[in-house]
Amino acid sequence: MNNTGNMLRRINNKAQNIFGLMHIRFFLRKRLSVGQNLIIEKLPIIRINKESNIIIGNNVKLNSNNYSYHINMHSPVKLMADRPGAIIDIGDNTRIHGTCIHAYKKIVIGKNCLIAANTQIFDGNGHDLSFDNVDNRVNTIGGAKEVIIEDSVWIGGNCIIMPGVHIGRGSIISAGSVVVKDIPAMCIAGGNPAKVIKSYKE
């Protein structure tokens, strides 16, 4: 019974991958560039402004399947580039699980990255500070600062990556961290706000 169930799930996932990729490419057309061997486990949420782009490299995995994931995944992968000129660029071999990536301007995720479930990556706050007129804050849309995550970065579950952050190559962000400033290459960082815990030489 278990073997039959597993086989049916694999067939369903494969069919969903094919249907999902066709569905996404049909409706988003030129605004979405997808490399070879994209793996989709359950459909992601993808929203692209008509003047924006999402670029996905080769062998990328977008996993929204809570059933097979090792921690509880609260929601599907969500990719949003919803202001004119916004770009999300995801490098080859990167795996993204149940994460929201929301670009007002530009978010770059390098090659061979691991991004665990329930992580939030965004380059804008959505509203201005508006301390000169706080009653008008609700009517503002805020600015944006690019987020750069270099190659081979590992981001643990339930992290928040704030606007303007640059995470260097090979670094690890511990689960539950809030990253508010740049993290250098080849280190472990964690906490709220995230700080370097240990550094490793190349």
Strand content: 25-35%
* Radius of gyration (Å): 18 Å
Task: Write out the strand line-up for the largest beta sheet, numbering strands in chain order.
Answer: 2-5-8-11-14-17-19-20
What about the largest sheet?
Answer: 8 strands, mixed
Shape: globular
- The oligomeric state is single chain
Mean pLDDT: 88
If you had to describe this structure to a student in words, what would you say it looks like?
The protein is an alpha/beta fold. It contains one helix and 20 strands. The chain has an eight-stranded mixed beta sheet with strand order 2-5-8-11-14-17-19-20. Strands 1-4-7-10-13-16 form a six-stranded parallel beta sheet. Strand 19 and strand 20 (195-199) form a beta hairpin. The longest helix is centred in the first third of the chain and has 27 residues, at 2-28.
